[in-house]
Specification:
Layout lengths: L2 H42 L11 H16 L8 H10 L30 H6 L31 E2 L13 E2 L14 H13 L4 H10 L6 H14 L1 H11 L4 E11 L6 E10 L3 E7 L4 H7 L5 E4 L7 H5 L3 E4 L2 H10 L5 H20 L5 H27 L7 H11 L1 H4 L22 H14 L4 H4 L29
Parallel strand pairs: 3-6, 6-7
Antiparallel strand pairs: 1-2, 3-4, 4-5
Helix pairs in contact: 2-3, 2-12, 3-12, 6-7, 7-16, 11-12, 11-14, 12-13, 13-14
Length: 491
């Protein structure tokens, strides 16, 4: 009789093992099919959308799912109604919209050229035979072609009239105007034009070479490359001041990307770094390697919060305590997006938690740091605690080396860093994005250019005054050491 219960227990245990193995088999089969589909898309050159954003219907479903999930955890008094209130907090900037009236008026600051058109009858008989009773004005926009101008600087020589004609006489002559590149061919206006076109308008040097050739001036791309190398050295004091000022902010955001660099035998890997001081500077630097030594050169002397990914190259900075790690929730969210195709249910649950946090952040983006800190502790902290409690519960069910296991493991390993934004209202929930709209991109790229030679990278491998066009210039008189052009109209 005693053997019967033991057999039943063994059967139940074996049944559980079979069900567990069957679940694992189904999961691996889904991953296998997903990998095959991805290979087919890669063979055909078809890549899926990389935008990490749910559709409107899915976003509404995620909001309902978040309320359900939070209702299953003890949240210290936060209920489903509170989540609905959080969603209601989000508001748009108030504005008024004028009724459309057709074509917008042209800007007043643009110069106007008046052209008068007369009827043929008036042209034949003359204005004296008619009386003007009014007029209609029609405005069109034209473009004057860009033009290059050669500025000839005359430096007269003078001697005193009462000089001793038999003795030594001092000849007086003004010094040449200062130029960004000493004894250079290009003036400040042309140099600025090449910088803006190259790094703000994203025109490579070979296209600039053709553009200036159409305007009548042959400028080799190697010449422009040399100009930018000299300008990078000229801008170095400004760049150093920008780095010093950036280290005074409470937190920095950093990231790196690998690039291929030309070499004699074969291309080698280099790395571009970006350091963002929010609302102040966007700074770039090049290093041949992506290691701890590169991070030390990048952030030497900085003390404060650092918003970065969980790469091991930053770990030595956090050990001293001078730099405090602050996790990026957008980076953590990316792992859940990768798991969305293989584990849609659990991935959507995690994205619902993270989406709730970002929804609160958008609502309090313009608030003062003190108020943001208060709202985060009352509204965001319950969501964060529920998210990590859910991750702990799901960790045992996740198969090893699957996308969902990677996402859960990353979140659990980075929990302390991801919770850091709750401690200070100044800290962001993610690395600051849209740094390209800062308006200082040409200066930032000169910053990157200045760091290339210092890292042992040769310049050729690293890169591949406004005058009105209708003003006739007769001569420009400049005082000594003056760089401002004052054109005098010819009579």
């Amino acid at each position: 009789m005693s053997s019967v219960p033991s057999l039943d227990e063994q059967l139940a245990e074996l049944r559980d093992k079979v069900e567990h193995l069957a679940a694992e088999r189904d999961q691996y089969r889904k991953l296998y099919i997903e990998a095959l589909e991805l290979c087919r898309k890669l063979e055909r050159g078809i890549l899926g959308p990389k935008r990490e954003k749910l559709s409107p219907n899915d976003a509404q479903l995620a909001l309902s799912l978040l309320a359900t999930l939070l209702g299953e955890h003890e949240r210290g008094g936060a209920s489903e109604d509170a989540i609905s209130d959080n969603a209601a907090v989000e508001r748009v900037r108030e504005h008024t919209r004028r009724k459309p009236t057709g074509r917008k008026p042209l800007p007043e600051h643009l110069p106007r050229v008046d052209v008068e058109v007369l009827p043929p009858e008036v042209q034949q008989k003359g204005l004296a035979a008619f009386e003007r009773i009014g007029e209609d004005v029609v405005e069109t926009v034209e473009r004057r072609p860009a033009s290059l101008v050669v500025v000839r600087t005359h430096k007269p020589k003078f001697v005193p009239r009462d000089r001793d004609r038999l003795g030594q006489v001092e000849v007086l002559q003004a010094a040449s105007p200062e130029l960004p590149i000493e004894r250079g061919l290009a003036g400040p206006g042309l140099l600025a034009d090449t910088i803006v076109r190259r790094w703000q308008d994203h025109l490579p040097l070979h296209r600039l070479e053709k553009i200036y050739a159409r305007e009548g001036l042959e400028i080799a791309r190697s010449t422009m490359c040399g100009w930018h190398a000299d300008l990078a050295a000229l801008a170095k004091p400004l760049i150093d001041a920008m780095w010093t000022d950036a280290f005074e902010v409470p937190y920095l955001c950093s990231d790196a990307t690998g690039v291929l660099v030309q070499n004699a035998d074969r291309c080698r890997n280099g790395h571009f770094w970006v350091v963002v001081a929010p609302e102040r500077h966007v700074l770039f630097r090049y290093t041949p390697k992506h290691n701890s030594e590169a991070v030390d050169r990048l952030l030497r002397g900085y003390k404060g919060y650092l918003v970065a990914d969980a790469h091991a190259v930053f770990d030595h900075l956090y050990r001293s305590g001078d730099v405090i790690e602050c996790g990026c929730w957008a980076h953590a969210r990316r792992y859940w997006w990768k798991a969305l195709s293989s584990e849609p249910e659990r991935a959507r649950q995690a994205l619902a938690f993270i989406g709730g946090l970002f929804r609160i952040e958008r609502a309090i983006a313009t608030e003062l740091p003190q108020k943001r800190h208060h709202i985060r502790n009352t509204e965001s902290r319950p969501i964060v605690d529920a998210f990590f409690a859910w991750c702990d519960a799901e960790a045992a069910r996740a198969l090893d080396e699957t996308p969902i296991a990677t996402a859960i493991g990353y979140a659990r390993n980075q929990r302390r860093a991801l919770e850091r934004f709750l401690e200070d209202g100044r800290l962001p929930i993610r690395r600051v994005g849209r740094w390209r709209s800062c308006g200082r991109l040409p200066v930032a790229m000169l910053c990157l250019s200045a760091s290339a030679p210092q890292s042992g990278l040769p310049w050729p491998r690293f890169q591949r005054p406004l005058v009105e066009p209708d003003v006739q210039i007769s001569r420009i008189r400049l005082p000594s050491r003056s760089s401002r052009l004052r054109p005098r109209l010819a009579a």
